[in-house]
Design brief:
Blueprint (H helix, E strand, L loop, with lengths): L1 H9 L5 H15 L3 H36 L3 H20 L8 H10 L9 H4 L9 E6 L5 H15 L4 E6 L4 H13 L8 H10 L8 H18 L3 E4 L5 H14 L2 E7 L13 H19 L3 E6 L27 E6 L1 H8 L8 E11 L7 E7 L4 E4 L5
Parallel strand pairs: 1-5, 1-6, 2-3, 2-4, 4-5
Antiparallel strand pairs: 6-7, 7-8, 8-9
Length: about 400
Amino acid sequence: EVIEATIAFMGGIQSPVERYDFEESIASGLGLTALLLESEFKSYKEKKNREALKRDYREFFKKGLRLIEAGDLQAFEEHLKESSTEFQIKTTARIPELYTASLLEEDIRRARPGLKTGYASLDDLFSIPPEAITIIGARPSHGKTTFLMNLALNMVKAVPDRSFFFFSYEESRRQIGVKFLNILSGHRFDSGQNIKCLEDMIRGDGQDQNNKAWEKIRQGQAELERLTESKRLWIIDEPYFVDELAGVLTLFKKQYDIGAVFIDYIQKIKIAGRYATRQMEIQKVSETILETAKKLLIPIILGAQLGRDPQHGDKVRLDNLREAGDIEQDANLVLGLFNPAMEKAQDNGETSREDTVDLQVTVLKNRNGPVNETRILNFIRPLLTIKDKSKGW
């Protein structure tokens, strides 16, 4: 009842700045977020607009009936022409709101700053932009999923009052969950089969549960339990079509203060309908996700698989993304990952066995800062952990 009364009262406040201050005060008193009230206010305005349209329709029919009863058919025809144009505009066109300096101030005060990545060498160059798409592109097995997971954990720990959502279109929630546990536990069992050893320990396959390894696993489990039970970290493997995904995020937005959404990865997302090429499908997927990020005022971080460039095998380029439907045009920030050790092993038809390798992160596009800058992170492969190198970046 308080929220309904608040929303109705807000409708009478003409100054955007005064409305913003009022929202903040009420939200603080109720223990809610101002974003929730703003979302409810938008719904309220849409409802009022529909009611106003109904009233206009009633007046239209009343006037038409009066003219017919009076036998003035010429006036009735003029009434039809004038009203049809007016109603067409009201029902099909969204009349833009006059964007005043007050509205700009309100938007600036309401907007959240970009999110830090948790890597000092990267935060020196950029932040993850809000209300926009960030793309993390990499060739297969170069560390795209691992980087997304590490980013998610860094942000969950850095921003304790928001919820972060990790959607996997490639692996099951069990597979992603055990990878998160592997990162949080931080115990090295075996260079090549750390995940398998971790699962064996949890199953209790003859392992001593009193050793240090088991203690670290328990600590990791407790941390993962804390993050998931508090609904601050969501691991989701439902293969939503892109329109369904947009709907789910809209529902989540009404219930939770979303910090960021991670999606692994864009080429796996399906869209209803038929398109001439897969590139066109992916472009439509990208457009829908961008619209969702802007509408819900949230950052969405998309993984993207890059094809190998035979002419530039030692680096990633923005051109590589164009194989995926020009999705880089929808992104504010595009990062390219390159794992030299993995590239060398793949070229030789081998398996990379190094425990710790370099992971090159290149800023391929950045609407708000420098581009073509590369930083090198440490990728500890058995632990699926990515860390800053020494200050000598």
